[in-house]
Write a structure and sequence with these properties.
The complex is a heterodimer of chains A (111) and B (113). With 111 residues, chain A is mainly beta. Helices cover 0% and strands 60% of the residues of chain A. Chain A is built from no helices and eleven strands. The radius of gyration of chain B is 13 Å and the shape is globular. The chains are: A mainly beta (111), B mainly beta (113).
């Protein structure tokens, strides 16, 4: 059974810092991995999608890497801003087409 | 496209009543997922469909929960009878196959009193 874990569970940093959020999964047989952002009381917004054959994807200040063999992904946020404050979730798409979510990292960036 | 559309956005009902949540996936998408989100358990996958066919419903918590997808543009999640512990936010998501992004609706916040 695929299990997805994210650490840390919560993170509070001053504006301008570079951040690394971690995601690990137990079964390496995946189609892809997707990072989402969720603001309080809102839905999920897709940030990045990494296919199983890829090593990383970049979008603006965000960079996500994938090491499928070790069951790990990281989301790197450069020069963090207060507007980045949200919960960040990773999700793996299994080879049976399930989309399984991690526990999330709650990020707060203060001015 | 308007994205994944869920209705209602908020639902308050009394214990024992039937509740029906609705989802319209993005046009052309052939995979549809129903999730439940709570503070204690995070995002739990309840059921997912591929080409309107339920593929895995192992996450449906009890027989009180049922889901249907009568056509490619509409799905329902029904709880009958509802209980206070069903209170949560229910999300619907859709994607075009397994290799592309999944997109989420805004969710239905269900409160059972």
């Amino acid at each position: 059974k695929q299990e997805v874990t994210q650490i840390p569970a919560a993170l509070s940093v001053p504006e301008g810092e570079n951040l690394v959020l971690n995601c690990s999964f137990t079964d390496s047989a995946i189609y892809n991995l997707q990072w989402f952002r969720q603001d309080p009381g809102k839905g999920l917004t897709s940030l990045l999608l990494i296919q199983s054959s890829q090593r990383e994807q970049t979008s603006g200040r965000l960079n996500a890497s994938l090491d499928k063999s070790s069951g790990r992904s990281t989301l790197y946020i450069a020069a963090s801003q207060p507007g980045d404050s949200a919960t960040y979730l990773c999700a793996v798409r299994t080879n049976t087409d399930k989309l399984i979510f991690g526990t999330g990292t709650r990020l707060q960036v203060f001015p | 496209d308007a994205g994944v559309i869920q209705s209602p956005r908020h639902e308050v009902t009394e214990m024992g009543q039937e509740v029906t949540l609705r989802c319209k996936p993005i046009s052309g998408h052939n995979s549809l997922f129903w999730y439940r989100q709570t503070m204690m358990r995070g995002l739990e996958l309840l059921i997912y469909f591929n080409n309107n066919v339920p593929i895995d419903d192992s996450g449906m918590p009890e027989d009180r929960f049922s889901a249907k997808m009568p056509n490619a543009s509409f799905s329902t999640l029904k709880i009958q009878p509802s209980e206070p512990r069903d209170s949560a936010v229910y999300f619907c998501a859709s994607s075009l196959g397994g290799s592309v992004e999944a997109f989420f609706g805004q969710g239905t916040r269900l409160t059972v009193v």
